[in-house]
Amino acid sequence: MHPFNYVAAKSVDEVTKVLAKHGDRARCLAGGTDLLVQLRAGVYELDAVVDIKTLPAANVLTLNGSLRMGSAVPCHRIYEDKAIAKAFPGIVDGASIVGGIQIQSRAGMGGNLCNSSPSADTVPGLIVHNAECVIAGPKGKRSVAAADFVTGVRRNVLKNGEFLLEVKLPKPDKGFGAAYERFTPRNEMDIAIAGVASSITLGANGKVKDAKIALAAVAPTPVQAKKAEEFLIGKEPTAANIAKASELAREAAKPISDMRGTVEQRKHLVGVLTRRTLTKALERAKEAK
Amino acid sequence: MVEKVHVRTTLNGEPTEFLVYPYQSLLETLREVIGLTGTKEGCNDGNCGACTVQVDDRIVDSCLVLGVEVEGKKVTTVEGLATPAGLHPLQQAFLEEASLQCGICTPGFLVASKALLDREPKADEHRIRHWLAGNLCRCTGYDKIIRAVQKVGATSKPARATAAQATAKRRPAGARK
Amino acid sequence: MARVFVPYNMRKLAGGKTEVNVPGKTLRELIENLEARFPGMKELIVEDDRLKPGLAAIVGEQPTRQGLMTKLEPETEVHFLPAISGG
Amino acid sequence: MVATRKPATGRPVNGKHNYKVIGTRPIRHDGLDKVTGRAIYGADIKLPGLAHGAVLRSPHAHAIIKKVDTSRAEKLAGVYAVITGADMPKADNREVDLGEGAANLKWASNNVMADDKVNYRGQPVAAVAAVDQNTALQALGLIKVDYEVLPAVRDVREAMAKGAPVILSGLVGDDLGKKVKNTNMARHFRHEFGNLDEGFKKSKLVVEHEYELATVHQGYIEPHNATAQWTADNRVTVWTSTQGAFAARRQIAGILRLDDSRVKVIPLEIGGGFGGKIPVYGEPVAAVLSRKCARPVKLLMDRKAVFESTGPTPGGTVKVKIGVDAKGKMLAADADIRFESGGYPGSPVGAGAMCVFAAYNIPNTRIDGYDIVTNKPKSAAYRAPGSTHVAFATEGVVDEIAEKLGMDKIDFRMMNSAKEGTRRADGPIFPKIGHEECLAAAKNSPHWKSKLVKNGPNGKKRGRGIASGYWFNIGLKSVVTISVNTDGTAALVEGSTDIGGSRASIAMQAAEVLGIPAEDVRPVVVDTESIGYTDVTGGSRTCYATGYAAYNAAQSVVSILKERAAKLWDIKSNDVDFKDGVFFNKSDAELKLTFKQLAKKLDETGGPVSATGSVDLSAAGGGYGIHIADVEVDPETGKTDVLRYTAIQDVGRAIHPSYVEGQIQGGAVQGIGWALNEEYFMDQQGRMSNSSFLDYRMPTTLDLPMIETIVLEVPNPIHPFGVRGVGETPIAPPVATIANALYDAVGVRFRQAPMKPGRVMEALAGKK
Predict the structure, then answer these.
(1) Spatial separation of the C-alpha atoms in residues D439 and D649, rounded to whole Å
(2) Which of A2, B110, C83, D372 stands the most exposed, by the fewest C-beta atoms within 10 Å?
(3) ipTM higher than threshold 0.85
C-alpha cells in the first residue's frame, strides 16, 4: 500500500483544506471498509487520509420529523435507534444488511454513497426517501439530491476539495411507506446480485399519490424505474397494478452478466424484488396513515 | 515522507502506547508492532472475521481499522478475555463443547460472542447465528460454536459482572449501552 | 499359487487374460514368474528393485507396506493399482 | 520396535465396550493456548533479523516468460534479496514418493517458482525479501516481466478438444499403457471386470447421465505461510503450518536438491488444511531468498493468492451409466471420470475411480479415469479427494433408478449394498465394512421418519434427499515415544500435526493402555529431528495410525513396568499381570501396585522408562456415510436453504466423540457449500474472478441449521481399538444429498455443481 499521512479532522475547513491540497490523492475516512480494501488492492493511491469520525458535524444523528445523518455515522447507530427504526423502516432495511456486525460497526451511509458502487445497499433507500446530500467544500456548502449523487461506477458529483457532510431525509408525508430488499446467495456477508427500494405515498382517496422505485446492481449507477413510478401514480395500489409496475421496473434495468449473476437472472430478480418491496411499502404506508 | 505516529490507547485494560505508520492496520499493529499474535489474519479484506477485536463497545474487523484510529479508545483482544480470576465462561465453554478444531477462527469467535452476550445474554440460536455471520469457520460447521454460546448465555445471570469487568477499574455504571 | 488380477493396461501383454494364477512365496518371486510367462510385464510394475512410485500392490484385502518382500499365502489375491493419497 | 503388533488386551466389542478413557470427552491438551490466543501458528513466528517476503505472481494463465528485470527492485531501499526461477536449484525430472503419492520434482519446483513458462494465473515468477512487508510489496511493483501470452485452456473439454494448445510440451501421456505425445491428457487408466455389454443387455432399465463440477477450494481460514533460514553450514530450518512436517521436508529437500536430513521442518499450529496444506508452496522460495540475504525470511500468502495459486480440488465431468434387472438388482455399471489436474499432472482421479461404485455390489463394471492438464492452479487433495465428485453422479443415477422402479430409496440401496466379501469395481475384495449398518440406521433415524410438509411459506417448495459416500482411509507410517514420569504421568512425543484435536485422541489411546486418565498423558507435536518419520495428518489416518503407534509404545511401556514390578516382588516378569492401570502378582493377589505407585519406584528399579512405537500400516478401514437433507427452495429467486441435515457414519470406534462429531459436521458443511454456492468463476482468459471470501461463497453461521450426527461403531478388525478413518468420508455425500433433495422439492434433476440460485431459477423457468 502506498504510504499516506493521517489527519484526524476537527473542523470542516480542516477537511476541505487537506482535500483541496492533495486533489484526488486524498480522501475522507469514515468506516474505511471500502477505502482500505481498495487501497490495499491498489485500485488507487493516496498521500493523505482525512478521518471525519472525529468531526462532530459529520457524526450528527437527529430525528425530529425529518432525519439528519452525518456522513460518518455507522449503520449500527441507525438501526439500533428505536425511534429512527420506527420512523424510517425503509432506511433500516438497507443499513442492517451491509456486510456483517463487524462491518456495520464501522460502515455507514456516507461511505456507501461516496464509494458509489452500483450494488450499494443503502443508496436506493435514500433515493426513494427523497434524501438530500449536503456537500461541504472550499466555497461553502451545497445540496444535491441523493438520486443525482452517483454519476458512474465509483464516480459521483464531489469536486476537488469537497466531501459529503451529511444526508437529510424530509419528514415523510402521512401515508408514506418504503422498503428495501436485495437478493444474495448467502443470508449475510454478501453483495447484492440485485436490490430494489420502493416507496409509496397514499393520497386521502387511498390512491397512489407518489411512488419511487430505485434499483441497485443492474446499471452503472443506482437507477430509478421512472415508467413504473409514473404508471402507479393515481392508481389503486392493487396487486395487479403492483405486478404491472414490477414488469415496467424490469425494463428499466440494464444489467450485465458477471461472476455474481447473469442479465436474465438480474432482470427477473428486479421484477420479484420490486413487487415485494412495493407490497411491503404499501403495508407500511397504510400503517402510517 | 510519512512518519510514524505516536498513539496512546488502552489495550486489554492496560494503558499502551506505540509508534506506527498511518497506513498500518490495527491488525498489523497488534501482531507486528505490539507483538500480540492472538488476533489472526484470514483474508485482510473484512470478509472472514478472524481478526475481530472490540474497539470501545463495538466489534470490528481489525484489518479494516488503522492503528492510528485507536488513539484514546479501549481495545479488547482475545488476550484480554481471561483474567487472573480465570478463563472467561465462553473460553471454558468452547473447550468443553469442542467448539474449535484448528482454532484459527476461535479468537475472532470468542471476542464476537462475548460482545453479543454482554448486551444480549439470552440471545436465541437465530440471533447468535445472525451476530456471528461475520465470522467464518471451515472446520466445525458452526454447530458446536453456537451450542457453546447458547450454553454460556443460558447459565449467565442477567446482571452478572463479567470477569473482564471484575478486573477493570470500577467504570461508571451504564458506561456501556 | 497366487491369483494375480491383471491391470487393464497390462492385459494385452497377458494375452487378454484378466486373471492369472502364478506361483511365488514373495511378491518379488511372483513378479519374476509373471515376467517369465509374459515378458515386458515386470518393467510396468518394478523400477530399480522397488514397486514403481505411484503404484501399489494389494495383497489379500490391503495394500502391502513391505513392498517386494511381502510374503504370499497360498490362494491369496494380488492386485496392482494406482497408489492413492488422501486429503 | 516391531512394526505392527497384534492387540493383546482390550479386544474391541461391537458398539458396547468396557474402555475407561476411550469414548469419554476430555478437554484437549492444546485447548487452553488456542482459546487464550497464546498458540503459535505459522504466521506468528518471530525471529531475530527476520526479513519479510512477498511473491510476484503471473497475471496470465498461460504464457512464456521471455525476460524478468529485477534491477530496479534490487535498488529499492530496504530490499535484501530478489530471486526468480533462475535462482532455484535445478530439480531433476523424476518421480519421488512423498508418502502421499508420487510427484515429479521438476514440476513441483516449477509450481513454487516458474522458470521459463507459467501454466496458471498466480504462479510465482519472482520473490523479494525486505525489511518489512510493505517494502517487499512495493519492490514487486518494480519488477518487469515480459510474457508471451498463450491461449488459456480452461477446463477438461477445452483441454481434450482437437488442436487444443499443449500446456506441457515435455509431457508423455499414458493412454491405457500407450505413450502419447503433444497432449494435455497426462493419464488415461481403466478398471474393467465381468462383461459390461452382457450386463447392460440383460438390464431391464438403464440410466445414464453426465455430471459437471466446478473447481472448488478447501477454504481453510489460515493462509499459507512459510519461514525459512538457510545457514552457512548448508542446512535449512523451516517453520510452517503444514499437514505433514516429514512430507514437507521431503518436498523441500527434493526441490532444493538437498538430502532430507539437511532440512529441518518445525511444524507450528496449523489453521486448517483439509489436504491443501500437504504440498509445499512458500517454503523452498523463502529458503532460496534466505540463502541470498543470509537472514531468516517469512513469506505470508494473501487470500487472493491462496485461491489462485494453491491446489483446489479439480473441476471436471463424471458420466455414470447403471443397468438393473426387473427386481432392481444392479447388473452393470460404467463410469467415465475426467478431472482437471491443473498446471501440472496429478489430480485425484485414481481415488475417484476407487470410490465411484464402492457402495454397491455390481458384477460387471468398467471405470475410465482421465487426468487432464489445464491452465489452473495444480490441484491438491481436498478431503476424500475425488469421492464427492463421483458420489454426485452415482447417487443421482441411483436415486433416479429407485424412483423409476417405484422402490423405497433406502431399500434399493440396501438390496445392492456392498458388504464384506464384495469385489470392488477396481478389483480387490472388501474387508468388514459398515454400509448396510449405515443404511439401516438412516432408515430408522428420527430425521428419515419425520414428516416433511412439502409446501413452505410464500410459495416455497420443500424436499428431502438422501445419498451415500465412501472413503478408503490410508494407514502409512507413524512413530510415537512415551516416557513415564515418576509422578505417575506420561510424556508422549508424536510427529502428527494437530488440526482437529488429535493430540487428545492419541493421548487417550495411550492412556487406555496405561490405565491412567487422559489428562495424565501430555502429548507434544515435534519437529522432524525429534521423532521418527511420520506421514501427513491427512487421509483420515492420524487417529488411526498415530493412535496405533501410541498403542504399541504404551504396550512396550507396560512390558518394561511389568519387569520392574517383578524386580520389586522378586518374581519372574510373566508372573506379573496388568489390568485397568494396576499391576498384580499373579500368585499373590495382595501384592499390587497402581501405575502411579510403581512410577514412584522407577529410580530404584532401573531408572527412566521410555518406549517407542512405530507403525507402517496398509490402510485404515474404509468408512461409509449416509446423509439426509431437508431443503426449502424459493422458486422466485432459486435460493435454497437447508432446513435440517443429518449425517450418519460408521467410524469403527469413536475415541473422542466430540471431535468425531466435529469432523462429520465440518465435512458435511464443506459439502453443503460445495453443493450450493462454491465455485471458481473463470473469465475468458482463464483468470479467477472471485478470489476473495466475499465472492467465493462459503456458508456462514446464518446459512445452516445444526448438523445432527449419528455415529455408528462397526469396529475395524485391523486396529487395536477398532478405529476407522473418520475425517474425509463426511464430505462425500452432501453434493448428491442436496441434489436429490432439490429434485424432491422442485422436480428438476440438477447435474451441475454448484446448484446456485441462478442455475435453479433458470431450470425452474425452463420447466414452466
Answers:
(1) 10
(2) A2
(3) yes
